[in-house]
Amino acid sequence: MASISKICLFKPFSLSFAGSVKDQTLLQRCNFPATCILREQVPLNNECRVFARMPERTGTGVSTYLRETGTGENGDYARNDLDISHLISVLKFCGGEGCLEFGRTYHGLIAKTGLDGDEFVNTSLIDMYAKCGDIDSAVMVFNQMPRLDVASCNCLISGYANCGLFEEAFRLFMNYESWGNKPNSYTYSSMLAICGTLSAIEEGKQLHAQVVKMQYLSETAVSNALLTMYCKCEAMADAESLFERLPQRNIVSWTAIIHGFYQHEGFEKAMRLFCLMRESGIEPNDYTFTIALASCGNMKNIDNCRLLHGLVIKKGMALGEFVGTALIDMYSELRETDDAEKQFKGMGNLTSKVSRNALIKGLVQNEKANEALDAFSEMVRKDAACDEFTFSPILKACASLPSFMSCQQIHAQVVKANFDKNTHVGSSLIEAYTRCGSVEDAEKVFSRISAPDVVSWNSVIKAYSQNGNPRRAISLFRRMIIKGFRPTGSTFLSVLSACSHSGKIQDGQEIFQSMINEFGVSPEEAHYSCMVDLLGRSGQIEKALDFINNTPIKPTASIWRPLLAACRCHNNLRIAEFAAKHILAMDPNDATVYVTLSNMYIEAGLLENAENQRKLMKLKEIIKEPGCSWIEVNNKIHKFFSRDRTHPESEKIYDKLKQIMMLIKGTAYSTNADSLQVKEDFCLYHSEKLAVCFGLISLAAGKPIRIFKNLRVCTDCHMFLKFASMITDRVIILRDNYRFHHFNKGGCSCGDYW
C-alpha cells in the first residue's frame, strides 16, 4: 500500500480536451470550462475491464462479476487477501459510470471485511457517492472517518459543488484548519471554480490572496482556475493582469483568457490573443479553434474567417465534430448559409447531433425556414437523435412561416422523444402554435410543462393576448404573479396589448403604473407605443398626444405610428397631419404615412391634397408594399395578391368568390348600395378573399381555414370574412400584421374593436 499515495490519487492536471465524444459534448454545453481537475487513472483489473465493456450492466452481470472476483455471497474475501487497490479502482469506476447500486454493494463488502477504517478506501467511497449524486451517503462516510485528511475534504467539496451545494462547500473549506489540515492546490482549484460559478468575486479575490501566500500560483492548475474565475466574474481587467504575470502559460491558460474575452464580446481582443499564442510557439487545440472561429464570426469579417478556415484545414481539424460544427456556426453568423451547408456535407459520417443542430439553427437565424425543415426531415429519416437544441429552433421555423401542419408533425416528434414536458421546448411549441392561431393547442402544451418558467408564462399570456381573449391573458398574468413569478418587460407588453385590443383603458393604465412603481421594470419604446395605441384606439386622441409629449424618452416613429392609425380610425385629420410630420422626419420612406394621409384627404373631400401625396410618393420613388395573403394546404404554402390570377385554380377561386358575394348580398351585407358598389370596385379581389376561397374549395368540410396577411386587414374584408364564416359554417382564422382575428358564425374575436 505504500505505493499508493493520496496525493498521487488526487493529483490535479490540466484537461487536454481529447476525451470521449460524450465528454466533449458536455464541455460544449457547459460554457466551455477552460480547466478541469481530473483524478489520475488507476488501472482496472481484468474482471473490472470486462464488466466495464458490458453494453448493459444488469443485476445478473453485477452478481456474476462479484462471484467471479470472489466478493459475492459465495466468495468471502479475507481481509488480508482483499486487494485495496482493486477496491479503489472499482469505486472509481462506479463513480465515473454512475453505478450507484454497484458501488453500494462494494461498500457493504468493505464494511463486512473491516476495511471501512482505511482512509484511502473511505476517501474513494466519498468520491464515488459524490459523483453518483448521493451526497448524503458521502457525508455519512465523511462523518464516520476517524481521521479527516485533505484528500477526503477535497472529495467532499467537489461533491458539494457537483450537487450545487455551494454554501456547504464554503462551510467545509472554513473548517479545514480545525481538523489539522491545510488546503492544497486541488482545494483552491475547486473553491475558485465555485466562486466562478457563483460570480463571487470578493471571495475569489480572498482565495487569490491565500494562493499567493501559500505559493501555489506557480502551479498551472491553480493559476488557470484563477483566470477562469475572473473571466466568469466579468473581471477581465483582473484576468488580463493575472495572465500577464503568470510564470508559465500553457494551452489551457491561453484558452481561458481567449474564452473570457469571447464571452464578454471582446472579439478583437480574443483574436489578437489567439495570434499571440501562436507566435509564442503554442499551437491551438480543438477547443481553442472553436472559440477563435466563434470570435471571428462575430467580427463579421469574411476574409479573416476564410483565412482561419484555411488554418483549420492545414491542421487537419476541419472535419472534426467540434471544430467542424464551429465552422458551421461561423458561416451561419456571416449569413453565408451555402458555405455552412457545404461544411456540413463535407463532414460526412462525422456529422453529429450537435452539428445538425448548428445547421438547423443557422438556417432559421438566416430566415431559411423551409431549408431548416428539410434538414430536420433528413434527421428524422436517418433516425438521428433529437434534443431540445433541435426542437426549439425548428419550431421557430414553423412559427416564422407559419406552418400549422409542420408544427403538429414536429409536436408528434417532441412527444415521441419525451420532450413534451421540457420547459424550453414547451415554450417554443406555445410560440409556434400561437403564430399559427391555435391558442387551444398552446394552452394544452403549457399545461403539460413540468416546471414552467417566466418564458413559458409569457408565451401563453401572449397567445391569449394576440388571439382575442384579453380576459384570459390578464387572468394568467395575475395568476403568474400569485405563483411567485416576477413579470418581465415582455410580460407587460403582452398584457398591455391585450388591454389595447379590448378597450380596457383603466386596466391598461393601472398595469402600466404597476410595471414602473411595483415591479421596477423600465418601459421601453414598445411599451410606450402600446399605451399610445390603448388611448388612441379608444378615441382618446388628445390624451394619446399628451402621453407622447410627456414620455421620458424621445418619441420614435414607432411611438407616433399608433397615433396616426388612431386618427385614421377616428377621422382626426388635424392630429394625423401632425403625427405624420413627426414620422416622416424620422422615416421619410414610410409608405403607409403617405397612403394613410391620401385616404384621409379623399374622405375629407380634399382631392388635391390626396393627389399631392401620391405625387410625393412617385417623386421619392416610394413604393407601397403590396398586400399578400397565404394559406397552407397539404403542406404547401399558396400565396395570393390582389386580383391575382396566376394560381392554377384561379377560375374555381373566382367562381367561389362570386358565389359567396351573391349569398352575402342576400343577407344585407351593406345597407348602402352605392357604398357596396365602391367597395366591390376596390376591395372585391383583395388577397385575403382569394385565399379564403381557395381554402373553401381545397380543405375538407368543417376544417378551419387559416389565412396570413402581411398588412392590416381592411374594413370591407373584415366584414366579408364575418359573413363568409356564417354562410359556409367555417371557422376562419386570419392573422394580419398586428393580431389574430377568429371568425365564427358571423362574429369576430376582436368584437369589431380593431
Automatic annotation (TrEMBL):
Keywords: Repeat, Transit peptide. The keyword Transmembrane helix does not apply. It holds the Pfam family E_motif. Residues 677-754 form the DYW domain. One of its GO terms (biological process) is RNA modification. One of its GO terms (molecular function) is RNA binding. InterPro entries: DYW_dom, E2_motif, E_motif, PPR_At4g14850-like_plant, PPR_rpt, TPR-like_helical_dom_sf. PPR repeats lie at residues 118-148, 149-183, 250-284, 453-487, 488-523. Belongs to the PPR family. PCMP-H subfamily. NCBIfam families: PPR. This is DYW domain-containing protein. It comes from Gossypium schwendimanii (Cotton).
